[in-house]
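OP here, attaching both records as promised.
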Amino acid sequence: MAGSTRSTPLEDYALLSDLRTGALVSRVGSIDWLCLPRFDSPAVFSALLGGPEDGRWCLSVVDGEVLDRRYIPETFVLETTWRSPSGTARVTDCLLRSESQGDLIRRVECLDGEVTVEHDLRLRFDYARATPWTREIARDGGHRALLALAGPDGILVTGPMLRWPDEDDDESSPNDDTHARTDVRDDERSQEGGRARRLEGTFDVRAGERLDWDLTWFPSHDDVPDPPDAEETIAATISAWTEWSSQLEVDCDPRPEVTRSLLVLRALTNLDTGAIVAAPTTSLPEYFGGERNWDYRYTWLRDAAFTIEVVVAHGLTEGAELWRDWLLRAVAGDVDDVKIMYGVGGERQLIETELDHLDGYEDSRPVRIGNGAADQYQADVVGEVMIALHDLREAGVHEDEYTWGLQKGLLRYAERHFDREDHGIWEMRGSTHHFTHGRAMMWAAFDRGVRAVEDHGLDGPVERWRDLRTRLAEEIDEHGYDSELGSFTQTYDNSEVDASLLQLPHTGFLDYDDPRMLGTVGRIERDLVTEEGFVHRYRVDSGIDGLEGGEYPFVLCTFWLVEQYAGSGRIDDAQSLMETMVSRGSDLGLFSEEFDPGSGRLAGNFPQAFSHIGLIRAADALQAARKAREEGER
């Protein structure tokens, strides 16, 4: 069903984050995705992967249109301005920082005239597999609230009362400052509860008036919590975001997009554990209507490593330690059996299953939870981790016996798997190979081990590491480079090219302007780059990945090409491609995994850490190239 617009375009969604989980709210006010209490918890709202009946919370202005939306600067607090024939209103959506519960605040302020707002709330726990038992309860001060329970989950909804449809309109709202037209009769159903398919409410709000609703998640076995003070907690949330962003050092263009991308990395982080998820979503397709739909709500060692690299480069050395400590704790679970990804808390079992009851985004099935690639061997991972931890050492972060000991354990792991074929950075579900990128990353792992001993005086079997590094360099030159084609190849046993080869200079294996690298770029431009300049990961019709169907160009790979152009002196090409790719992000500066040039839509899980990491690195590379050119012209 490629080209269909049945599902809300991804670029129409905004991300909310409380540093434990994330919500997606559409331009017209529908929260269609929210997992509570963690990124990898079951979803309470799953309309993103189905329809409204699968759970959502829509808050909109009757007969209104959206004039504008924005994040309050350097936060993830969303403001949407609506205009109706009778007035103007601002809706503020915010996930509040909390230690023990999840709180989603929705505030409506009438700026002029009078507006009518309406709610459509459909709670569906466990990916729409459980409709909670919902009832009214009395709160302190005589206020009423809605309590919804199912299994381990509890939801408390406070604010002007929402009701089941078709109840009589014979009472006003308990909030004296509202002018409600909701159903509020205390009939038998609302007193005793029921499995509500839908809760709704319509409220008139006049100039200067403000209404707040709060949805609070809590463990169902705990006491019902007190809702937060909206004014205080919104202010505290804004303050926490701006305090963190004030530490950023961003002196490259485009500054707003780089800053937002760094904020995205923070937003995708679970502050309790230090884990950064690849994306807050699952099963958003790499090709509309296709089967390449994966769960990205977990933490890849690779993503954590890349995050450390970019935040260190932008002044957050101390903040990077949060991600480093998660990474080392996860690996410490069994350094002899390193996983490529873990749960937010470091869980090792991420069993992949399919949710047949959900139609999928743009009818893209199956919808998956869990990720079977967690059990793959990917040779590049240890190298990426060692590069990131090397950068931390270079930035002055202290290394102790524990942190260095685990790194030595990673190098022992790499040595034990020295000759083993793998599934590659793209998690191929076909047969294993020696991927040239993976072998170069293994080279980088031993290289950083050697440099730790030589430059920082740490202990280790440096002679053996040097020997392994040399063997890998010779092997890559012999088997990973095709002199007749004049380029590196995807694997040792084929002649394809792969966008991951653009990362070879980043490892230090060779320079960006090395003739072998320039030849490889030429082949990538011919075989993997679209007319608009967007880069595919590899040719899917080669059959190497073991999957059916296609995929769109990869945002990260396009930014990698920007980085390569900048590093090899093609600054004008780099700038042009950078501007093209940045312009394809959402109006809020968010990027998904892929981009469909045909429809002009974002595709794949959203927003994606990889894509934002790529943007930051591309901007940094361009800045460095410009400075080098200016110095050379003096």
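Record two, same layout:
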Amino acid sequence: MATKKAAPAQAAVDVALSELVDGEKKWAATSLRGRREVLDRVRELTGRHAQEWVDAAVGLKGLAASSSLVGEEWISGPYVLAAGLGALSKTLDALAENKSPLDKARFGTRGNRVTVDVLPAGPFDALLLNGFSAQVWLQRGVSSAAAKANAGLAQLDPSRTHGIGAVLGAGNITSIAPLDALYELIAHNRVVALKLNPITDPLLPVLSKILAPLIELGAVRLLTGGAEVGGYLIAHDLVDHVHMTGSARTHDAIVWGTDAEAAERKPAGTPKLTKPVTSELGGVSPTIVLPGDWTAADIAFQAEHVATQRLHNGGYNCVAAQALIISADWAHKERFLAALRAAIANAPARRAYYPGSDDRIAQARKAYPHAERLGPNGDRLLVTGLEPSPAEPLLADEYFAPVLGVVELPGTGADFARAAARTANDAFVGTLGVNIIARPDTISELGAAFDDLIEELRYGTVAVNAWTGVGYLTPTASWGAFPGHTLADVQSGIGVVHNAWLIDRVERTVVRGPFRPAPRSLLHGEPAISPKPPWFVGNKTAASTGRLLAGFAADPGWTRLPAIFASALRG
């Protein structure tokens, strides 16, 4: 009976891949300017169908249409896809003119590495994300000249394509699947069979409309179905490469098999899937809070910041903060933890839409019977008293649910910063992202010790006074694990995505933001006019601001800015 059910799905895969074989030839014959025109059409369609996209996302996540949390779907859906398409379009335009995408980039050095300033990427960024910045750090030994020469990746030779890539889409953030497909198509010059996660199947109609120019060209095919479809797809002889977003557990099942098969294959180094695999797999993300002389307003704002890092999208984010690293000797520790409890408890209620969430909450409660149950339904857990050890369950496994732990370390100043870096590197599984929160004067006082802290952290995105999610939203930033993982020890994955300037040999992205929102930032000498960010879970106008930002990303223009600012200031 199972074979009969699987046959139509397998036939759909066969047809899609056969069409992609022909589509690869069309893609190879499409000039760089032609490719840019296709991306520009996709961006226009993203704007045209953005409301339909958000409606589908709101439906599958069980949000009320009037909820401010709808802003999450605007910003992490059509906004970031449209922004990514715009940045990739400019990259293709530069390459078509025989210029490097990095010709106008600003280079620097940090820790014996060359850096590239990627945010702000223009005057609109400087206004809309005022006070935020991002740098891509290149791997050791890569010069600025080499970075310029190699930027463009596979688009440096666009007629030389590299077969068919299978992309297994994520089930949480709705832009991940199309963005991953774009990176496979542009950075690697492979046509794409994109299989949606069953959770996001309701997005198939709108994504078919948005990606229509690529589908008509034969460069992309969309597929739906369960694990049997995904397994058939990635094993198919016509597929040359696989990219997936998910958990390390799912990755290992795909690469090594399960149970007895995996137990035999993994030690022997004989994977079940022998094709090249790249991945983004999440992990346990830390937030390091450096002690300082915080005001009551600082405490309240940063408590909501940390609550957002955990609760955005209901806690179902690969880079959600799962544990704080905080000084046991900080004078404001208890006040901050009290404010954090309140911020978690008072965040808007929402349905646990991601499969298995209740079971993972139950597992956490079993492991930590003393966990505090917060929120309207008591389904948000805060666990204090964690040991800074890889044997600690909360640090060894990504819960992918609203569970937040607290690790206390002794010390202050540079001693605490060094201990926090060691703990984040050695006790936490995964290397996708780490957050650091510190007053500007604390950063200044630490001086070189703060620079050392950033350099020592082995994470793909390091965010200072910003959530690492800002790195995800920045199309010119890289997104992925810290380099060095292997199929046998994959942790947060292999390779990067986004990276719209197509920079080669990336090590990490470092994001920085203002410690305080405006106007307090200006009153304390921080040159930043950004109000409370629209991705904060307590932002009252997130939905309207997100909708306006998505419209801007699809069709940028100066006349759109006043409405965005007016909405954002009311947040």
